Amino acid sequence: MSNDNTISRRGLLMKIGILFNGLVATALAVPIVRFLLSSVTRGSVNAYLSWIPVGRVADFPEGETRLATFRNPNVMPTDGKTVDTPCWVRRVEGNQFQVFAINCAHLGCPVRWFPQSGLFMCPCHGGAYYRDGSRASGPPERGLFEYPYKVENGLVTIQAGELPTPGSPTASLLKKKMPCGARNDLVSIEGGKLSASSGTNPLFGKKKTWV
Amino acid sequence: MGVIAQIGQWFDQRLQLAAPVREAAEHPVPRNTASWFYVFGSAALTVFLLQLVTGIMLALIYVPSAGEAWSSLQALNHDVTLGWFIRAMHGWGSNFMVAIVLIHMVQVFLFGAYKFPRELTWIVGVFLLLMTLGMAFSGQVLRFDQDAYWGLGIGASIASRVPIIGPAAVKLMLGGPIIAGATLSRFFALHVFVIPGMLIGFVGLHVLMVLKLGINEWPMPGRLVKKTTYVAEYHELTKRNGAPFVPYAVWKDLFFAAFILLAIAACAVYFGPFGPTGRPDPTIIQTAPKPDYFFLWLYALLSLLPPSMETPALLIGPVVVIIGLLLLPFLSGEGEKSWRRRPIAVLTILLVATTLGTLTHLSGFTPWSPHMNAWSGDPVPQQFLHGSTALERQGALVFQVKQCRNCHSLGESGGQRGPALDSVALRLTQDQLIRQVIQGGGNMPAYGKNLSPAETTALVAFLETLHPVGQTPAHNAALDRGGSKN
Questions:
Q1: Is residue B151 part of a domain?
Q2: Which sequence spans correspond to the domains of chain A?
Q3: Contact B288 A116 (CB under 8 A)
Q4: Which of the listed residues B339, B362, B385 is the one where a domain comes to its end?
Q5: Domain A50-183 is of which CATH architecture?
Q6: Which residues are bridge partners to A150 per DSSP?
Q7: Is there a single domain that holds both residue B456 and residue B406?
Q8: Are B356 and B412 contained in the same domain?
Q9: Are residues B336 and B413 in the same domain?
Q10: Shared-domain flag, residues B418 and B389
Q11: Domain housing B425
């Protein structure tokens, strides 16, 4: 063909037109993708986490585990009740606490505390945890998620803001080691007290007794 | 010429659609495809149209806001005239749609309709199935109640297990760090704009290919598909033994479609709408969330898989299944179509159906979940306390108070997480009972920290009485020989 190597004016204009549209599409893709990924990119530096009070120390009797709720720090006007988050607060003794996420470490269902048997039980797939949050039985592969906590001015404050999930247990951000396996497998029984126990808890690294 | 014909002609002069529509309607199909087995595709399309119509109606009232969605569903159920009926039609329509799509797929598989030249029709169909399931899940989220809220948590927990991108996928799915307003809004966008838009496009493509390539002929054992000869053979068949689709075959589609719509309406009237269950308030933790029926098998599977296999099964299983479905027409694109000569195909369907059916059945009574109220709700049956000593009765009290019955049944009441204990004394000796109670194991928590020695003694004394009359409890024979106790 004679015009194999030639290019018509219309043909060139069409190609420039396609190129022009490609450039505009690329330029527009930047804000679109940034908008779509905004919930991811913001969270990557733990921007969602902050310190939130869950109650006064006096609200939590020693040796007991109580349900507390806190309001998630990231609130949008349309969130309704969904930002009210429950958690289990266990006061070991004095200012020593354990604050567990409500979400089962298996698939996130709400675990319930049973003081009588000293177990957290999950209604969905049958996961169970001991009072210190370590795994007791069922499908979970680890213990309950734990929030880092501080006690300041008589207030128990936890670092929270994200839904803890098995792949992203951000609730345990500050903990070097999770309580999974922290339970003493050799059980000692102390007479007289219903739920007495003693042993070394690697979380706190010192000997203690709780009732 | 009548006025109506004149108006029709006016439009057709401009639209020029009458000829291609007539051609599509009257295209010849093999006579034996005018069968009741060939009605499921059109029924799925009919239910899809019903879902579009009822979905738009629901959107007139529904508010996709985490704070108000639940109340707007209550308004639909109770305040808006026939709102409950439209909700029920949409909910039952979704159940029917999943079921019909699956039946259609099984029929196409067993009749070898995915073979040459209909491979792409099958592949588009696989995507239609995935989109249907996507609609089913996102629809369940829009019914923003407790089940929806915790169901999202389960979805997030599964997504989080994907290596590397898991945590990011969770935030992308939830639209933020937690399940909240943004989560519902994005599932609304998916359920109402994104997936239906794709569905309409893919359904169009699917139907277009059925029209272009012709409906699959009734498979005859021994009539093999060859790429070189099939198209000519099919045309010969439709020429020799064909009949126009309208009206020869279409009347069965019409009858079945109407029957399905009637069945959906009947379910809607009789059973009513689905939920909403409790308010989506995470602080109400007295809830046992459950998925809708088409995901119940998954719920059962997640309870029964060994913990170590769960993440690989969750992440690799779906990928393998989807790739397998997509590759199917390439792996067996030629050859025998009739299910009479494809025993592996028939066995595959039976195996999958039995597995899904069994898992769904199990999820009806969740034997893996503790009965949270059994310890306070179900008294120890009297027959287990007849003639018992004070110590054994004390043990029965410990048994109740320590919530053993949340997981163990006695006299057929109580949880089924652990074995029934009606005859536990036949299986375990006194020492074994003590060890099991104190140290747990075999998926039972250890109760050593939670029982005093006196309580353990009483509990084991009670457990030792649990055996049928006339049968001797288990005992350690080694101790007999040594002459020591028991």
A1: yes
A2: 9-36, 50-183
A3: no
A4: B362
A5: 3-layer Sandwich (2.102)
A6: A157
A7: yes
A8: no
A9: no
A10: yes
A11: 374-482
Report how far residue A202's alpha carbon sits from residue A184's, in angstroms, rounded to the nearest whole number: 10
Give me the CATH number covering residue B422. Answer: 1.10.760.10
- A87 near A101, Cβ under 8 Å? yes
Residue B165, chain A, CB below 8 Å: the answer is no
Two tokens, residue B333: 């694109």
> Which residue out of B285, B301, B436 would a mutagenesis test of the A interface target, given it has the greatest number of A Cβ atoms within 10 Å?
B285
Which tokens is B361 given? 């059945």
- The complex scores an ipTM of 0.85
What is the tally of helices (H) and strands (E) in chain B? 22, 4
Strands (E), A106-194: 112-114, 119-121, 128-130, 135-137, 146-147, 149-152, 155-160
Tokens at B257, concatenated: 């479609």
**What's the length of chain A?**
211
Contact A80 B305 (CB under 8 A): no
Distance CA B265, CA B89 (A): 6
Indicate the Cα dihedral angle B101, B102, B108, B109, nearest 10°: 160
Structure token pair of residue B378: 């179900």
CB atoms within 10 A of CB A11: 11
| Residue to test with chain B: of A45, A129, A163, most B Cβ within 10 A | A163
Residues B306 and B423 in one domain: no
Q: Do A168 and B160 touch (CB under 8 A)?
A: yes
- CA angle in degrees (0–180, nearest 5) for B455-A90-A140: 80
pLDDT band of residue A190 (cuts 50, 70, 90) is very low
Is the CB of residue B334 less than 8 Å away from at least one CB of chain A?
no
Q: Does B154 touch chain A (CB under 8 A)?
A: yes
From the CA atom positions of chain B, what is the Rg in Å?
30
Q: Nearest Cα to B372, choosing from A145, A126, A203, A63?
A: A126
**CATH code of B14's domain:** 1.20.810.10
Instruction: Judge whether B369 lies within some domain.
Output: no
Are the C-beta atoms of B257 and B46 separated by less than 8 Å?
Answer: yes
Closest CB to B67: pick one of A79, A161, A170.
Answer: A79
Whether residues B330 and B475 fall in one domain? no
Evaluate whether residue B72 is within a structural domain. yes
Asked if the Cβ–Cβ distance from B166 to A167 is below 8 Å, we say yes
Query: In the listed set B362, B390, B406, which residue is the last one of a domain according to the structure?
Result: B362
CA distances in angstroms from A85 to A52, A109, B130, listed in the order given: 11, 13, 33
Q: Contact B150/A110, CB-based, under 8 Å?
A: yes
Closest residue on chain A to B64 (Cα):
A78
Residue B368 within any structural domain of the chain: no
Per residue in B265-317, pLDDT tens? 999 999 999 989 999 999 999 888 888 888 899 888 888 888 888 888 888 99
pTM given for the model: 0.86
- The answer on B304 and B381 residing in a single domain is no
Name the domain count of chain B: 2
**Are B346 and B394 contained in the same domain?**
no
* CA atoms of B61 and B71, how far apart (whole Å): 11
What residue in B sits closest to A139 (Cα-Cα)?
A: B307
A117-163 pLDDT, tens digit per residue, is: 889 999 888 889 999 999 988 888 889 999 999 999 999 999 998 89
Angle at A55 between CA A49 and CA A56, to 5 degrees: 130
β-bridge pairing A112-114 and A119-121 = antiparallel
Q: Does B365 touch chain A (CB under 8 A)?
A: no
